[in-house]
Amino acid sequence: MNTNKRQYRELNPETKEKISQSMRGRGKSISHKEAISNGLKSYWKNIPHKPIEKD
After folding, report:
1. Which pLDDT tens digit goes with each residue over 21-54?
2. What is the structure's pLDDT at 21?
3. Burial profile 16-54: b = 16 or more Cβ within 10 angstroms, e = fewer
């Protein structure tokens, strides 16, 4: 199993913070933002939510 590929939508808080810090101060054009949005919408359609563990 490839452990480098995301399996679920949810990320841990540390990973979210690292991504946030690395993206600070960068700007993007409107067309670039739209292209990113469309690509991510397509990507996330194929990734399932993490199963909820029951007690």
Report:
1. 998 988 889 999 999 999 999 999 988 888 888 8
2. 94
3. eeeeeeeeeeeeeeeeeeeeeeeeeeeeeeeeeeeeeee
pLDDT confidence band for 2 (50 / 70 / 90): low
Three-state SS for 44?
Answer: helix
* DSSP tag of 15: H
* DSSP code at position 54: P
* Type of residue numbered 16: K
Tell which residue, 3, 1, 9, has the closest CA to residue 45.
9
Angle at 15 between CA 1 and CA 10, to 5 degrees: 65
